[in-house]
Design brief:
By secondary structure, this protein is an alpha/beta fold. It contains eleven helices and seven strands.
Length: 278
């Protein structure tokens, strides 16, 4: 499946979401038109036709500007044929997935003598990524949105993918990785998505929890050893019974003992402190 066709698939799976994005206003009553436009030079492989309330939305996705026939002529041809069929106003939007070569003019008008036809162009690399990150339907496009730190953006995308419901996560993850391949190296994509899946896995979470627990236990043991040394310096050698009692103290009790022992002069002071716990 080509990148353009994947975008067509997404827009037809989520027509209201895509229409709301490109038009900038919420759209609720949206249906996909399976219109056949087979006469050359029309190629409807990569386009989506959506019927809104009293309007047709023609949505086209392009990875490259170059085409035969040229994009402006194609857009005019689409408009004429759609209008002939539906006799409704038509909004045409081209979504460019990748920036063209430097100094390339992105045309939005077909003009020959008295004939003039306009359409909109959305440059995906200039779009705010927040909209895409916050909507599962648009999430696969997020890696191509505007950013000065591409790898951080891709990491954010991975995090959002892993927050999805388990039922929808595999498919959206696959779509996202495919489109990310337009901009990022495959090794980086595989690495980040693999690490993201590991972080979300139950086994990884258990390993992490066990590591944190071991860390807490080591910290508590160091605290206990420090208090035993300080007590020995203040009141002399501690009997094994006293040591065992200190070993049984909770972390909070150890912290309290660490403050109290600063005033101890003899082991009787320690015994008196133990009595406050009873």
């Amino acid at each position: 499946m080509s990148f353009d066709n994947l975008c067509k698939l997404l827009s037809e799976k989520h027509p209201a979401t895509f229409a709301s994005w490109v038009l900038g206003t919420p759209q609720t009553s949206v249906k996909v038109l399976k219109t056949e436009l087979s006469i050359e030079p029309i190629r409807a492989d990569y386009v989506t036709f959506l019927q809104l309330q009293g309007r047709i939305l023609h949505l086209e996705f392009q990875t490259k500007l170059e085409s035969t026939p040229p994009l402006p002529l194609r857009m005019l041809d689409y408009w004429v044929r759609l209008y002939r069929l539906y006799r409704l106003p038509i909004t045409q939007v081209v979504v460019l997935l990748l920036p063209p070569a430097p100094k390339t003019v992105i045309e939005t008008v077909f003009s020959v003598e008295t004939t003039r036809h306009e359409y909109r162009v959305i440059s995906l690399w200039e779009e705010n990524p927040e909209l895409f990150l916050n909507d599962p339907a648009l999430l696969p496009l997020a890696p191509l949105a505007a950013t000065t730190q591409p790898q951080i953006l891709l990491q954010q995308v991975v995090e959002r993918v892993n927050q999805l419901e388990p039922a929808q996560r595999p498919q959206i993850s696959a779509y996202t990785q495919i489109l990310a391949g337009l901009k990022y190296k495959k090794d980086l994509i595989r690495q980040l998505f693999r690490e993201g899946m590991m972080r979300e896995s139950v086994i990884y979470q258990e390993i992490l929890a066990e590591g944190e627990q071991r860390g807490e236990q080591r910290g508590e043991q160091r605290e206990r050893s420090l208090i035993l040394r300080q007590l020995t310096r203040r009141v002399g050698e501690l009997p094994q019974e006293v040591r065992s009692r200190i070993e049984s103290l909770s972390l909070e009790q150890l912290e309290n003992l660490g403050e109290a022992l600063l005033d101890f002069q003899a082991i009787a002071d320690l015994e008196a402190w133990f009595s406050t716990l009873e």
